Amino acid sequence: MSELEKMKEMLEDWPETFKERPELKSLLAQAIAELEKECEWQKNDSGHIDEYLTGCFQGFRVGHLDIQRSGYVFCPYCGRKIKEVKQ
Ligand SMILES: [Zn+2]
């Protein structure tokens, strides 16, 4: 089970120990939402066949025809998971 899955499980089954601390539950929910945000990448019309425009507005050449082949999973600029958006 990943750390994110553990966090979700804790949120669903909020421990008795923290019943008096609803603000912690709210913080956990915010952290989960932040971790689940993705960086949407789409092909950039720059003339380079391997260049993408990242969701955080950077140009990045992946070195292959597509992201899957390049092996990139996380955006090197914002650290979020990459989601490829096809035009
Ligand atoms: Zn990014």
Question: Which features characterize this protein?
Answer:
elongated; 4 strands; alpha+beta; 4-stranded mixed β-sheet; 2 domains; 87 residues; single chain; binds zinc ion
Total separate domains: 2
Individual helix count: 3
Order of H and E elements: HHEEEHE
How far do the termini sit from each other? 34 Å
Q: Give the percentage of residues in beta strands.
A: 15-25%
Give me the Rg, rounded.
18 Å
Name every ligand kind in the structure: zinc ion
User: What's the total count of β strands?
Assistant: 4
Profile the largest sheet.
Answer: 4 strands, mixed
Mean pLDDT: 93
What is the global morphology?
elongated
Helix proportion? 25-40%
Strand order of the largest sheet: 3-2-1-4
Which residue ranges are poorly predicted, with pLDDT under 50 across at least 5 consecutive positions? none
Derived structural class: alpha+beta
